[in-house]
Amino acid sequence: MTARSYIYRIIIFTILIFSLTKVFSAEKIFCDQCGNLIKAGTRYVTSNGKNYCDQDCFDKSLPKCDVCSEPVKNGFRSNGKKYCSEKCLMTTWGKCELCGKRVQNGYHIGNKDGAFFCKDCMEKPKCFLCGHPDNCKELSDGRFICSNCDKIAINTPAESRVIFDEVRIKMKEKLDMITDHDIKFKLVNLQELNTESELKYSDESMEQGLFVHEERTKTYIKTKSIFGFEFGRETKTEVINNYSILMLFSLTKDKFIEVAAHELAHDWMQSNYPNITDLKISEGWAEFVATQANNQYGNSHMNSRMRNNPDPVYGEGYRYVAGYAKEHGVAGLYKLFSKLNSGQ
Ligand SMILES: [Zn+2]
Ligand SMILES: [Zn+2]
Ligand SMILES: [Zn+2]
Ligand SMILES: [Zn+2]
Ligand SMILES: [Zn+2]
């Protein structure tokens, strides 16, 4: 939200005494603007106890409009600046990105440099991806999407699978992060994702994907029998690991890449440091990897979301992990993970 700016109406009190005031022959009066002697017998202007040769000199003495540079007579003062008219003042107000109206107070999305909207437009449904209010379309699972995001949303399993595999290869090649897990991948709706997810976060930090690791231990008894007599009874156990990543349908390609990298980072951590249970570390790490993937795809601008995320787990976790990596390098970060993993 913008800081409230105070506006004062300023009226320059002008007494124009053209017709009445004449210099008497004995007086010596100088113009307070140009310094010239006002000739005897001529008409001149006085205002607030000052004298001016003519209207021109008087106008020159007035403060200038910060927008059009015209003298400010009946104008406005706001945040230390002066404006000659309401029209000039309004050009300094934010322009709502949806309706185009200029308003003194409005809302920025994300951070103070984010897109600006007026109060009326902010009442409209907001896009689950960019957060902008719009004449949003409602998706089958109740999410709202704006027309810009909808145009480039990914809705087919085939298309998403291709991008998912591409992200996995890029993470192997550029970030040296790979697991040999056979990851099942599925596009889901919000309800399916929430059912699988134990974490139900607020709308703001809604997870748009989910990494699921299931470990099942199957126990079976093997016996041999001859003529109804059992012998060689053996108990066998088999550990079955299932890995899957679920992602919401209707993400834009860039968002899809970010979320896929986040979930693949969970897979990598599960494989390398399975005992880390601190969510701040695992989610912070996943967000950190997502920023690295964004950089790889030329989408560094998307990383301000992580940097500015107020969430105590995702935001704080990201800032902790990114700060640690900056100070100690990624090798130092892995050392920290090892320590945490072994419970030290
Ligand atoms: Zn003058
Ligand atoms: Zn002006
Ligand atoms: Zn608006
Ligand atoms: Zn959008
Ligand atoms: Zn996560």
Structure report:
The structure is a single chain. The protein is built from 10 helices and 18 strands. α5 packs across α7 (253-272), α7 crosses α8 and α8 (279-296) crosses α10 (314-341). With 344 residues, the chain is of the alpha+beta class. Residues 31, 33-34, 36, 52-53, 57 line the site of one zinc ion (ZN). The site of one zinc ion has 8 residues, from α3.
> Uncertain runs with pLDDT below 50, 5 residues or more?
201-205
Instruction: Name the quaternary structure.
Output: single chain
The value of Rg in angstroms is 34 Å
- Main sheet: strands, sense, barrel: 3 strands, antiparallel
| Total of helices | 10
Widest sheet: strand ordering: 1-6-7
Number of DSSP-assigned strands: 18
**What's the number of structural domains?**
3
Task: Report the β-strand fraction as a percent range.
Answer: 15-25%
Anisotropy-based shape: elongated
Q: Could you say which small molecules are bound to this protein?
A: zinc ion
Q: What pattern of helices and strands is seen along the backbone?
A: EEEEEHEEHEEEEHEEHEHEHEEEHHHH
Give the class from helix and strand content and strand pairing. Answer: alpha+beta
Measured as a percent range, the helix fraction is: 25-40%
- N- to C-terminal distance: 44 Å
Mean pLDDT: 86
